[in-house]
């Protein structure tokens, strides 16, 4: 029997390194391993990555040549910043006259606090003329004498005129230090924020370069020929060479791996992803099939790093219960893991004999109201996982599942202490725990204007069953636990797409300038190994900030899933009707391509216009897009320019707020081209034409337009 080609995802955590192998065709999970993260090995975390890969290949019977894709996510950059384990940065400010005043102020970055009592190590030197090689080298010598291990060059307006920063780096090249220019990190204006982002990137550069070289050499030695990719903080992956240039993109990538798994494996198009561990829950959003990102806050300051918008709540599967005044007063933030106590529900009923309830202060500084059970087998913590098992919230085979009798025995002493029955005690524990989570979930639903009729809750992580099912039950939202939830992060790494984001501030951007930004993003992902024919680019033009943003994504090879699992017409119709919350008999097929079908219905309300809600369903029966009111029209590639010009012209509104073209999406072959981020009709039509380029004239095109209010 031939072994399948596999995609390998490795997630390097603070304690363990998890690795999975996924069938490259069916995306089925074939194997998973867990090894201790090798922080203290002479090769650092690289040793654990290779060990995990070796064990995974042995478990699945695969050879190194069977690896079609290999990526890893790491907390190394995040931990380096949190622990203050960074290199001394030598910052060269460039400028004369007023520009010199601006750049000399950048020396204040040495006051940035990495950890309590530990500041960012930074040395500053100034050059007036970047073309003066002797002056540049004097500045480098000065910085080296102060311990600089990496250099950053920064000049006002280098986004438009990068020659000065480039000249400084060229003059400094003979010194052999790692170097970066501020304009290489971001092309957005704002000298202070741009330079701060570049300085933080440089601070972790030497350490990340050393790790990248070790991992690369070890993977090559193991016989793997697939290019090594690294998880980014925005839910995609990047080539190793790109990580060497911008290691800051790996900061905060841990939560991004989990939501990437939900997006790719669970095919979530609208919802909230909750990754629950033992101590906390990371909450993030998927909106219209894309992860929600924003500029991240690093070291207490905003940056130009686009990262997953993740909000963390101190409630997890191991969170301990707090009591007082004869009732449950809260859950967490202290967990059983940190307190050094075993979960009561994983003890045997015999170990829980003769149990009494006490309250303790788990760690210095904690309140002394955390409930514990002292029993025949020792002292145990009462946790969210205990309560979830008691109420049957943990499914068979789940990582956190325990014996039901032990779960009830774990809660019974606390219930007796509070004077209530076991089920009520377990419910109150979960109610207290998810109250904090629900507050954040509700806020994110408002912030991103999710459609509560279609949004779902998806739980990942080993503690998913302690939070997501109860939250779904009490909020009325649909909820489910992701398949293989305990390894959803490495699955996300294995399935993630190559991603690149290009941002430019272009006042009054022309069609040509917008298309140029789009092309730059597309070229960047192709250069990192993405198959050119599968690249998708989403363009957004923000008229308020004059920002043109292009986000390109693509697979390193064209992944063709096993077609034997595709949904039939009835299943797809049922999925659309369920999402539309209506009888399938009232739902009609409006249009379709080989990969997607557009379903619609009509809603009539007194004194209100008729609305035509639609759902776009893919061949797997997953709703990929929804709209409350949309116009759908089918044409061909040859006829599309004329048809789109007419549709956009009819649907564009003009008013005090400016021109607002409709939100346009095109169904082309296997793709949904999202052009909804462009408000001006002419650039919108230009982008549409770029999507049609190089396609057969008779190929069908489905246009889906939503008029903006």
List keywords for this structure.
alpha+beta, single chain, 19 helices, 40 strands, six-stranded mixed β-sheet, 709 residues
3D structure, described in words:
The protein is α+β, with helices and mostly antiparallel strands and 709 residues long. It has 19 helices and 40 strands. The strands form twelve sheets. Strands 3-2-1-4-11-12 form a six-stranded mixed β-sheet. Strands 13, 14, 15, 18, 24 and 25 form a six-stranded mixed β-sheet that branches. Strands 8-5-9-10 form a four-stranded parallel β-sheet, with helices on both faces. Helix 1 packs across helix 7 and helix 11 packs across helix 13. It is globular, with a radius of gyration of 27 Å. It starts with 5 loop residues before the first strand and ends with a strand. The model has no long low-confidence stretch (mean pLDDT 89).
Strands in their spatial order, largest beta sheet: 3-2-1-4-11-12
Uncertain residue segments? none
> What class, by secondary structure content?
alpha+beta
Average pLDDT value?
A: 89
Q: Beta-strand level of the residues, as a percent range?
A: 25-35%
- The radius of gyration over CA amounts to 27 Å
Please bin the fraction of helical residues. Answer: 25-40%
Number of helices: 19
Globally, the shape reads: globular
